[in-house]
Amino acid sequence: MEGEVVHLEGRIFGEDNRFLYNNRSAPWSAVGKISWNTGHMCSGALVGPRHVLTAKHCILNNRTVTFRPGYDNADVFNSSQATHAFVSTKIGDGICDAKEDWAVLILEKRLGDEVGYFGAKVAERSVADKTVFDHVGYPGDLGKGKRPYRLSNLVMSEKRWDCDALGPMYTDESDLAGGQSGGPLFEALEDGSAYIWGVASTVVSWYQGGQKGGWGRWASGNNMVTTIARLREEFP
């Protein structure tokens, strides 16, 4: 099998399954657009009152960055600039690099008190082949990154554990493009709680016997989850 790995420049597999979704209730309201004063943009989600989880490869040093929860052509809720950015200091080997492609921004304001925030979980094989995951992000190829788009019923295959039992995670035929980087892969439960299992990192396209397909690859793991817990204590 021949393969190609890219950051989210855009890979659509067959029919585009992304659809506009501007639900302003929790937990959807905790997902937002991250924008830099350079025009650079990514997606992210609150995982604490002032803590935003996104992708490590989104981070630009020494630049002003703003998080806008629920953004839809304009601010829907209050926004806030970030004061700190924490990235994984662990370096993997090849495929394991994607597992650590996450970052946590600390905001000036406690936006999570207004819009809510997610919990975070470590990947579990028990959810393999189950349609339990959703993703929301701001794709640059749809709405110019100004509107939230959703992927629903994403499936994680238990065959796609290239690094270790904690990630990175893979979901089948996931339509992702630039701007969605850092957006959450999450599970919303019937009791109203919601947990992020990973963040959008890269797309893997594969070719075999004249057939082609691909997977979305999501940063995840114990280091990500424990860092979120630590930062929520250090920056209440």
UniProtKB/TrEMBL annotation:
InterPro entries: Glutamyl_endopeptidase, Peptidase_S1_PA, Peptidase_S1_PA_chymotrypsin, Trypsin_dom. Transmembrane segments: none annotated. Residues 12-224 form the Peptidase S1 domain. GO terms for biological process: proteolysis. GO terms for molecular function: serine-type endopeptidase activity. It comes from Clonostachys solani. Keywords: Signal. It comes from the Eukaryota. Pfam families: Trypsin (PF00089). The keyword Signal applies. This is Peptidase S1 domain-containing protein. SUPFAM superfamilies: Trypsin-like serine proteases.
